[in-house]
Design goal:
The chain has 455 residues and is mainly α. Helix content is 44%, strand content 4%. The protein has 18 helices and 4 strands. The strands form 2 sheets. A two-stranded antiparallel sheet has the order 1-2. Strands 3-4 form a two-stranded parallel ribbon. Helix 9 runs antiparallel to helix 10, helix 9 packs across helix 11 and helix 13 crosses helix 15. The N and C termini lie far apart (102 Å).
Length: 455
Amino acid sequence: MGLQSFADAKGSDGRPQYQLRTTILIRNLVDTRNNGWQKSKWVKDEELKKLSEVRADFAKEKRIAPGSLPNINMDTAKEQERKETNQMSIDGGYGAAAPMMPVQTNRGINKINPTTGGRRRNNDRYQHQLSTTYREKTRAPRQGKVADDWVVVDSPDKAEDKGEAPAPKKRAFKLLSSSKAVVDIASVERLAGPEKEPSPEPAPQPVEQEPSQPGPSASSNPNLKVRRGGGKSISKDDAKAQLNELLLAYWESQGSDPGTEEAMKNVRKLMGASTKGWDQKEVGPWIIDIALNAETKITRARPLAGGLLVKFIAEGVILEEEVQGGFHEMLTFFEDMMIDIPKFPVYIAEILAEVFVAKSLGLGFLAKSLSDSEFTVGDVPACKTTPTEKHPFGLRASFLADLVNAMLEADEDADIGELLTGIDIAADYMGITDAEQKPQKEAEWIQNYDFGDIL
């Protein structure tokens, strides 16, 4: 492959493969080789020259005597250009006002202004001129001397009571070198009007102390004691994965004190994360869902999960209504859940039992959730009360029996009668509305499940 082929090479898109400079260098090399490695007459050697040599060549080319060229000092030219630019901005250049009011001349325009950090303020085009102290501004008048660049203006004072004509008062103003205007002080005072006395400052009012408001980590609910949000953002999948690892570690510790402390530490961290497609209110329902789907080889997975919910509620990590909402959501799909988890009534009862025995929640919401028909077909309740061969008192009454047994497992000394206070077993769980039949049906249910000693 020849050198020329490199110069003419193109990519897949039809464009030259090499940059233009590289292509030119290759072509120059090809031309030099074709010329017997002799440089073309069009190629001139470039060399560095001194400024004096450049000037001599220029004079020779223009046929000018070398001595007639002006001696230009680049530093002096730049300084002159800078002075002209500054003078233009002061003496009526771009955006300047003319005539200017008599103000102090510039003293060290290149000095750093400690107020603005050396930068010129945009809202005051003359601010950079006022860089002198008050003593420097008033030095000449105090000493009774008038410098060459000061202008004396006569300003008659008001007549005194003596009846004599007042002597003109001498006032000195230092003007810019380019300004030719002389200001009549009397005219300025007439336009300004009489000097106004400064209004007295109002007395400071006592500031009322407002009640302290909760910070961003707090909530309007006093039961919530853990910061929510504000930390590193995590996605919904990552949040669920962290919660799953938390429960696995807690189950492995079998609810020991170190395991509980570690679970509390991790859930606080999870609650403090910023949400991305999820909300901290979902943590309670997620714990219920993970516990229901836990592997059977995990010992006491669901009772331990219920106990952990009790601890989280007590520590203000999650709220009671959030946990109750999670149970309500599961119970409204009661019979559908039994298709996926055949032992769903027993599993959900084991979790609920821990919460009810600890009295973190009451049993009052159960009947309403079980009779909910929002997600069923044909206005059928989520859990039926119709008696069947497998459930002679109905599926709902059978679930209540599973819950009573689970509460006894959670605490054998639990007062079941007290926990069931206010629960209409016959009406809410067996669908019996006849007042005469209620006592008999409740007695049959107690006898059938052998609850005579506790109820």
